[in-house]
Specification:
Order of helices and strands: HEEEHEHEHEEEHEHEHEEHHHEH
Structural class: alpha/beta
Number of strands: 13
Number of helices: 11
Oligomer: single chain
Number of domains: 2
CATH superfamily of the largest domain: Periplasmic binding protein-like II
Radius of gyration: 24 Å
CATH topology of the largest domain: D-Maltodextrin-Binding Protein, domain 2
Distance between the termini: 75 Å
CATH class of the largest domain: Alpha Beta
CATH architecture of the largest domain: 3-Layer(aba) Sandwich
Strand order of the largest sheet: 4-3-5-12-6-13
Length: 307
């Protein structure tokens, strides 16, 4: 018995170094001086298929870890409101927001900054698509949106800039209210879902992000025998990165500028970078600032999405 106990104890001693070196569930890493580094948490509004978002932000996290020298953790959220809430309470540090959600988030976190947008976001557009069985024709001017009265309509998320806020704004500019549509206006929750619902004929008309529409058409994911674009809105500012000011305390006073530099460094001539940019539907990231979204804030207040 003594011999057996001795042997067991000896084996446990051999295993101790292995156990101590095994990776745990803690996602922090150590800096050069041995101090623990808290991960930078990134997130995004869930405006597309979750699998596409997971692929995109996993690749981006790997890139940012290499550029910034800190661990990056992507945290998916369930809806647009959850993204804003997570940013407000500090669960997300760096978030890819739409125009409206970015304004909502910044208004709740003092000194939060809009720091970067895609090259396409300074002049972004919504497209209205229609099921071809609806009989609806292309709309030449804003005033002709009145031809949509009596149709069924779905937006994307209730808090989507390109999928709800701006299309509703332009409808109102033409004198069309939500009550002018047949039945209740729908909210599909994502641009991909809007395409699918209109293609299936569940709704006659849908409003969605032009960039998503173009990318899905290019990928062959849309049946153009069943659905097509009938109107394109005027341009407006939309998607952008917003960063929480608390990152300066954790990673240094210049960290916001370092994040910007990493995003601006993405180069379509570098294959690994091109894949990320392609998933974003962009050729590069450019600088932006809070003031660019003043019009979005004004429209959001007008329709009651910002109090």
């Amino acid at each position: 018995m003594i011999k057996n106990n001795f042997l067991l104890g000896f084996l446990l001693l051999l295993l101790l170094p292995v156990t101590a070196c095994s990776p745990g569930t803690n996602s922090t890493s150590s800096s050069a001086d041995g101090a623990q580094v808290q991960p930078l948490t990134t997130g995004a509004i869930p405006d597309q298929d979750p699998e596409k978002l997971q692929r995109l932000y996993s690749k981006l996290a790997t890139y940012l870890e290499q550029e910034l020298g800190v661990p990056i953790e992507y945290k998916p959220v369930t809806d647009y409101t959850a993204a804003v809430t997570a940013f407000r309470v500090g669960d997300l540090d760096l978030v890819w927001f739409g125009g409206l959600t970015g304004v909502q988030a910044r208004l709740q976190v003092k000194e939060a900054q809009a720091i970067a947008q895609r090259d396409i976001d300074a002049e972004f557009h919504t497209v209205f698509i229609a099921n071809k069985n609806s009989g609806l024709k292309p709309i030449p001017k804003i005033k002709d949106l009145t031809t949509l009265k009596g149709s069924t309509l779905t937006f994307g998320s209730e808090s989507s800039t390109s999928g709800r806020l701006m299309p509703q704004y332009f409808l109102e500019q033409a004198g069309v209210t939500l009550e002018d549509f047949q039945g209740e206006v729908g909210f599909s929750k994502s641009h991909d879902a809007t395409i699918q619902l209109v293609e299936a004929g569940t709704y006659e008309v849908g409003a969605l992000n032009e960039q998503v529409w173009k990318s899905r058409v290019a990928a062959g994911d849309v049946d153009l025998e069943k659905v097509d674009v009938i109107w394109r809105t005027p341009a407006y500012y939309d998607y952008h990165w917003v960063i929480n000011p608390s990152v300066k305390e954790r990673y240094g006073a210049d960290f916001v500028e370092r994040v910007q530099a990493a995003l601006f460094k993405l180069d379509p001539n570098v294959p690994e970078h091109q894949e990320i940019l392609d998933l974003f539907g962009a050729t590069k990231f450019i600088a932006t600032e809070n003031a660019n979204y003043a019009d979005i804030e004004a429209v959001g207040r007008k329709i009651g999405k910002i109090k």
